[in-house]
Design brief:
Helix content is 19%, strand content 15%. With 263 residues, it is α+β, with helices and mostly antiparallel strands. The protein has a domain at 37-209: Aldehyde oxidase/xanthine dehydrogenase, a/b hammerhead (Aldehyde Oxidoreductase, domain 3), CATH 3.90.1170.50. The strands form two sheets. A four-stranded antiparallel beta sheet has the order 3-5-1-7, with helices on both faces. It is flat and about 70 Å long. 22% of the residues are buried.
């Protein structure tokens, strides 16, 4: 049998075999849902059923009184705790030199939801079922607004996704020599036009585990230990590295990650 414990000296010209299958086939793999720690609690997000709506009120009394509930957080709690929003990772300028619009992106919705599934509240309970049951008891009064559901019609739409960005245009960016490109198209023997749909996906986390001796366990806890923010997020905490597989990845930081740690 080929020893797969050591990778080949060079991957060039090699057929690289998977090295992780043995632990999967023998039951030794550990997924994020397999992680169970002492005094572990669970978080479930209550998400918006509307694509665009104002939050008029949130009633938590019944949910907080439900069995097993440890705490419930809303956008107001994060604002009071001065937890910042999610910044854009790449700031650019429009062709006219003006900076891109960067509206607030709170971890939990504050005053308004902007897409179906937008995070409204985080329920932390002693079990997943208790957290789910409590989430169903939260009463949210929404004022539904007109939604922009077609990106090709979003620019200039009367319904602003962000109130401080009228017209829904973040930036108008370009690169290269437009005159040369226009000339090339004009002189081309044939021009083909097509629409390209970007199917880039976002991994939505509905349930997170919140052990009391660790800030959070999500689908990227291993990567988070090596992330630049880890010394701050885990300051003063003991972090035990657990080999977790099956997560989608952590190339992006979403509201779930921040809410996990705040919990």
């Amino acid at each position: 049998m080929t020893d797969m414990s050591t990778p080949p000296a060079s991957a060039i010209g090699q057929s690289i075999r998977r090295r992780e299958d043995r632990r999967f086939l023998t039951g030794a793999g550990q997924y994020t849902d397999d992680v169970v720690m002492h005094n572990q609690s669970y978080g479930v997000f209550l998400r918006s059923p509307h694509a665009h709506a104002r939050i008029k009120s949130i009633k938590l009394d019944k949910a907080k009184a439900a069995p097993g509930v440890v705490e419930i957080f809303t956008g107001a709690d994060l604002a009071d705790a001065k937890v910042g929003g999610l910044p854009c990772g790449w700031l650019i300028h429009s062709k006219d030199g003006t900076p891109m619009k960067e509206p607030a992106h709170p971890v939990l919705a504050q005053g308004k939801v902007r897409h179906v599934g937008d995070q409204v509240a985080l329920v932390v309970a002693e079990s997943v079922s208790q957290a789910k049951d409590a989430a169903e008891l939260i009463e949210v009064d929404y004022e539904e607004l007109a939604a922009v559901i077609d990106t090709t019609k979003a620019a200039g739409n009367a319904s602003a996704v962000h109130d401080d960005v009228p017209g829904n245009v973040c930036y108008d960016w370009g690169h290269g020599n437009k005159d040369a490109v226009d000339a090339a198209f004009k002189s081309a023997a044939k021009v083909t036009t097509l629409d390209i749909v970007n199917t880039n996906s976002w991994a939505r986390t509905d349930i997170v585990t919140v052990p009391k001796d660790l800030s959070a366990v999500g689908d990227s806890v291993v990567d988070d230990q090596g992330a630049a923010a880890a010394p701050v997020l885990f300051a003063g905490e003991r972090v035990d590295a657990v080999h977790v597989v099956g997560g989608v990845g952590s190339s992006e930081r979403g509201p779930e990650k921040v809410a996990e740690r705040f919990g």
